[in-house]
């Protein structure tokens, strides 16, 4: 009897334990599913908003930023603002509504882009500017920027030496609403303007665009055929200006200076066809911005407002260090 | 309407048109927007009260020896790098005998170092500002404003401080120099030493 009693009791206990274990397994399974579900929801989303993807330099910046964000474990999507503040504004509204958690941002306009950053800030979405500065120190979480001014001071010194302090020159500016345009022009003129033998006969915007630079240069050459040099605010414009000079048969007589460190200009410096450029590091800026976003997600809240990234002068004397 | 009234109307139109349209350089317009702060006065104070009195310069020979021993530590101890990059600015001092004077630079045979250049023509950029460590990036709202500090400081040194000192120097003179030097970790084997001078003191 004892055994007779014991067996059903034991059976019942074992049966209850099995049920409990089964429930426990089911619960754990559900919890795992639930955890997995919320885990995928918790995967942070990083937006990379770029002024334009119509320029290879910005494509490198955008893709590097997205790649770094993915390597850090986040979803990343690139938005192209097409150099249009209105498109940029739409991008910001869309990505905020879509629940992006951070923005790696290359602005279209130093003033016009501030309102977009403020929208993100109001939605508690941190914004890390890359390469282009906005005229506010309380909008973006941090701004990682090429030291355009210092880079162009060095180009300015190289320019004066190459021309021996005398001659007529043209300046092709980038986008007039972009601080980089003025930082580069300012650094260059902080040197060149101190040499009265150098006369700027034309200063015109070509929007950082190669084709536009070629057209602008062709027009300028009609009015100013006897120039000695051209300073361009980026390498795309330097290539456009060089093409125009080639077309006019003046490529050997006119010294061309660029800025960016683009591969085609580095090659031209190696061939002695372009005098100098400033090597920027878009991948360093992109990586730093992505790492800052990562640190923000991990709780960091204090960031330097502006982080300058060194620009290095590339000329015939050191071009071999930069050729791939 | 009578003919003279048409004439008056045309003149008024010309006058209005003339006063409505003007041309100026894009760069001048940009510079005009930042013209409120007295950068000249700030640079004067930075140079005379800050740079000449507060900034400690490292002996160039000591810096070079320390770099040979442990470059990272030397850059950290003596250098100033704003942001990210391979180079840093150092405030250095040294002394020696002038071996040559050109339009661009003074060549100096510096004690314990060897041949060193003192840049007398191209005093531009952020070398003095950054080597001094006296101005923070966050002291100014934008990079453009921050860079104008350098321009004012350079202008003071280049046009007021240096010319009378340099004019009095000749090859063979002994001098001491205090100034900024830029060194890059990418080129430390045989760095071309060019000092942007803050002070030149005849010995």
From TrEMBL, chain B:
Short name of one Pfam family: DUF2291
Domain of life: Bacteria
Sections of the chain in a coiled coil: none
InterPro entries: TM0957-like_sf (IPR036215), UCP033535_lipo (IPR014582)
Name of this protein: DUF2291 domain-containing protein
């Amino acid at each position: 009897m004892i055994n007779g009693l014991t067996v059903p009791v034991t059976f019942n206990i074992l049966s209850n334990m099995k049920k409990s274990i089964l429930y426990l397994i089911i619960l754990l399974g559900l919890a795992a599913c639930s955890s997995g579900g919320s885990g995928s929801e918790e995967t942070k989303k990083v937006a990379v908003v770029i002024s334009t993807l119509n320029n290879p330099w910005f494509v490198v910046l955008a893709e590097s930023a997205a790649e770094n964000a993915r390597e850090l474990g986040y979803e990343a999507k690139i938005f192209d603002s097409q150099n249009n503040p209105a498109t940029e504004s739409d991008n910001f509204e869309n990505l905020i509504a879509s629940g992006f958690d951070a923005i790696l941002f290359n602005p279209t306009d130093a003033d016009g882009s501030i309102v977009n950053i403020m929208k993100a800030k109001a939605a508690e979405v941190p914004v890390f500017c890359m390469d282009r500065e906005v005229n506010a120190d309380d909008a973006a979480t941090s701004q990682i920027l090429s030291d355009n001014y210092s880079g162009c001071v060095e180009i300015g010194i190289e320019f004066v030496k190459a021309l021996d302090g005398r001659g007529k020159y043209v300046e092709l500016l980038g986008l007039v609403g972009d601080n980089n345009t003025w930082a580069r022009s300012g650094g260059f003129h902080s040197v060149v303007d101190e040499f009265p033998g150098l006369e700027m006969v034309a200063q015109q915007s070509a929007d950082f665009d190669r084709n536009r630079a070629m057209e602008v240069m062709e027009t300028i050459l009609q009015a100013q055929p006897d120039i000695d040099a051209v300073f361009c605010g980026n390498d795309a414009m330097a290539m456009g200006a060089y093409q125009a000079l080639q077309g006019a048969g003046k490529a050997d007589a006119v010294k061309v200076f660029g800025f960016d460190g683009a591969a085609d200009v580095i090659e031209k410096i190696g061939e002695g066809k372009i005098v100098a450029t400033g090597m920027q590091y878009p991948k360093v800026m992109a990586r730093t911005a992505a790492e800052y976003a990562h640190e923000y997600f991990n709780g960091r809240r204090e960031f330097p407002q502006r982080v300058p990234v060194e620009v290095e002068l590339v000329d015939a004397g050191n071009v071999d260090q930069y050729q791939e | 309407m009578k003919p003279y009234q048409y004439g008056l109307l045309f003149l008024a139109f010309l006058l209005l048109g003339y006063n409505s349209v003007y041309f100026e350089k894009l760069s001048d317009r940009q510079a005009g927007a930042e013209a409120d702060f007295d950068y000249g006065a700030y640079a004067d104070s930075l140079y005379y009260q800050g740079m000449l009195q507060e900034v400690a310069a490292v002996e160039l020979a000591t810096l070079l020896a320390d770099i040979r021993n442990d470059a990272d530590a030397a850059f950290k101890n003596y250098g100033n790098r704003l942001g990210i990059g391979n180079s840093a600015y150092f405030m250095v001092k040294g002394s020696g005998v002038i071996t040559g004077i050109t339009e661009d630079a003074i060549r100096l045979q510096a004690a314990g170092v060897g041949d060193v250049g003192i840049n007398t023509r191209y005093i531009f950029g952020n070398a003095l500002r950054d080597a001094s460590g006296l101005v923070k990036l966050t002291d100014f709202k934008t990079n453009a404003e921050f860079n104008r500090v350098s321009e004012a400081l350079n202008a003071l040194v280049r046009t007021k401080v240096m010319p009378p000192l340099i004019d009095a120097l000749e090859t063979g003179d002994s001098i001491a120099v205090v100034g900024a030097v830029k060194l890059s970790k990418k080129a430390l084997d045989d760095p071309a030493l060019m000092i942007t001078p803050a002070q030149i003191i005849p010995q």
